[in-house]
Design a protein that fits this description.
It is a single chain. By secondary structure, the protein is an alpha/beta fold. The chain has 2 domains: 177 residues, Glycogen Phosphorylase B (Rossmann fold), CATH 3.40.50; 178 residues, 3-Layer(aba) Sandwich (Rossmann fold). It is 40% helix and 18% strand. The protein has a 6-stranded parallel beta sheet with strand order 10-9-8-11-12-13, sandwiched between helices. The protein has a 5-stranded parallel beta sheet with strand order 3-2-1-6-7, with helices on both faces. Helix 7 links the parallel strand 9 and strand 10.
Length: 382
C-alpha cells in the first residue's frame, strides 16, 4: 500500500505528533508498505530524513490549544500539493489535525479533486478541556458529527522497557523526580516547582530532572523562581534522544506529569509505564484514560501543589508501592506496542478503501455512503 501521512507541524521541532507519525510510519514500513511523510520543516533540506517530503520551509508559531504550534505556510502550497498528488498516486492519505486550515486542508481539497479514489483518513489530536468536551472525539464531534473510532497512542516497549540500559551515572544516587515536556503553562511545571519545595523539605536527597525540547528563554523564568525559592538540585537537561530518554525514565523513582489540561492522551505516561516508572499525574480526562489511580500511579487534582507534593513524598517514602505500580505499568504498556496500533490504523485504511470501492461500483445506483470518521487518539505534545 502507498501511504502519505500529513502533518501541519514543523517536522524539525520535536513534539508528540511528530513522534507519533514517525513511529507509525516506521511500523508501516516494517510491514512492507511504502510510506511518505508530508510536512513543513524549518530544517535545511540536506538534513531532513529521506522519507520526509518537505512541502514548505516557512514556519510560523501560532498559539493553539494551550501550546504554540509551529505551522507551515506558503503561497504556493496548493500548487505544490496538487503536483505531488498527481505524481505519487497514493492509496491512502492520512491527515493529522485535519481542522488546521493550512496543509491538511490543502491536501484534503486537492486529493478530492485530483485523486478521488484515494482514501482520506483523519486523526484529531487537539481538543478543548471543558465539561461538555472531555476528549478529542467529543470535541471534534461538535463540529463534524459522525461515527468515530478511538485508537490509542503507541510506545516503543522494546526501547523504554529495556532493563539492560545503563542508568544515568551522575544521577544514580538519591531520589530522582522526572519531568518530561515543554515548559509551557499547560504542562504545569510551575506547580511542580512549588510541590518540589515541599518534597525537598521532607526528603533532602531528592532532585528534580527536567527533560524536554525547551529553549533557554523558556527556562529563564523558572530558574529565577527557583532562585527566589532557594531550591537546589533542579537539573535542566533539555532535549535528549529517545535512547537517552529511556535511560532517564529508568533512572528515576517517579515521573511527574502536572499538566493543567489540553492533554488528550499522554505519551510520556506510556513511556514511563513501559520503563516501569511509577507516575504522579494530574487527574485530567486525557491522563485518567491511561493511568488508573493507585494502580500504575497516583492522580491528583490539577493546579494543587500540596496534593502533588503529598503524592510524590508518599511514593518516595514507600518504594515497594512504586515498584508494584511500575510492574503494573509495564504489563499495561505491553498492550500499546506500535505494531498493535499500526494494525488497527491499517484496518481503518482497508475499511475506507473497501467502502470507496463499493461506492464507485454503485455509482450509477442510489447508494448514499455513510460518513465515517476516525479519531486515532493522539499523543500529548511535548
Amino acid at each position: 500500500m502507498k501511504i502519505a501521512i500529513v502533518s501541519p507541524y514543523d517536522f524539525h521541532y520535536a513534539g508528540g505528533v511528530t513522534k507519533h507519525i514517525t513511529n507509525l510510519a516506521e511500523s508501516f514500513r516494517q510491514q512492507g508498505h511504502q510510506v511518505s511523510i508530508i510536512a513543513p520543516s524549518s530544517q535545511a533540506v540536506e538534513k531532513i530524513p529521506p522519507d520526509l517530503i518537505r512541502i514548505s520551509g516557512f514556519v510560523v508559531p501560532v498559539p493553539y490549544s494551550g501550546t504554540v504550534a509551529r505551522i507551515g505556510f506558503s503561497p504556493w502550497l496548493l500548487q505544490r500539493v496538487r503536483a505531488l498528488l498527481q505524481r505519487e498516486s497514493f492509496d491512502v492519505v492520512h491527515l493529522h489535525e485535519p481542522m488546521i486550515p493550512t496543509l491538511p486542508w490543502a491536501v484534503s481539497w486537492q486529493t478530492q479533486r485530483v485523486s478521488p479514489q484515494t482514501a482520506l483518513v483523519g486523526t484529531f489530536h487537539a481538543y478543548s478541556e471543558s465539561p461538555s468536551s472531555p476528549a478529542a472525539r467529543d470535541y471534534v464531534s461538535t463540529y463534524f458529527p459522525g461515527s468515530y473510532r478511538v485508537i490509542p497512542n503507541g510506545v516503543d516497549v522494546g526501547l523504554f522497557g529495556n532493563s539492560e540500559l545503563p542508568p544515568v551515572a551522575q544521577f544514580s544516587e538519591g531520589f530522582n523526580l522526572l519531568f518530561v515536556g515543554r515548559l509551557e503553562p499547560r504542562k504545569g511545571f510551575h506547580y511542580l516547582m512549588q510541590a518540589y519545595a515541599r518534597v525537598k523539605m521532607a526528603l533532602p536527597q531528592a532532585r528534580l530532572l527536567v527533560v524536554g525540547p525547551y529553549t533557554a528563554g523558556d527556562r529563564l523564568p523558572y530558574e529565577r523562581e527557583l532562585h527566589r525559592l532557594r531550591l537546589s538540585d533542579v537539573h535542566f537537561i533539555g532535549y535528549v534522544s529517545d535512547e537517552e530518554l529511556a535511560r532517564y525514565y529508568q533512572s528515576s523513582q517517579v515521573l511527574c506529569a502536572p499538566s493543567t489540561g489540553f492533554e488528550s492522551f499522554g505519551m510520556v505516561l506510556l513511556e514511563a509505564m513501559a520503563a516501569g516508572t511509577p507516575i504522579v499525574a494530574s487527574d485530567i480526562e486525557g491522563y485518567r484514560r491511561v493511568v488508573n489511580h493507585q494502580a500504575e500511579g497516583l492522580l491528583v487534582p490539577p493546579k494543587d501543589e500540596i496534593a502533588l507534593a503529598d503524592a510524590l513524598i508518599h511514593l518516595l517514602k514507600h518504594p515497594e508501592l512504586g515498584r508494584a505500580m511500575g510492574r503494573r505499568g509495564r504489563a499495561k504498556a505491553s498492550g500499546y506496542t506500535w505494531d498493535q496500533v499500526a494494525k488497527r490504523v491499517l484496518d481503518c485504511y482497508h475499511e475506507v478503501l473497501d467502502w470507496k470501492q463499493q461506492t464507485h461500483s454503485a455509482e450509477r445506483g442510489q447508494l448514499v455512503p455513510r460518513q465515517r470518521n476516525y479519531d486515532m487518539t493522539k499523543p500529548t505534545s511535548w
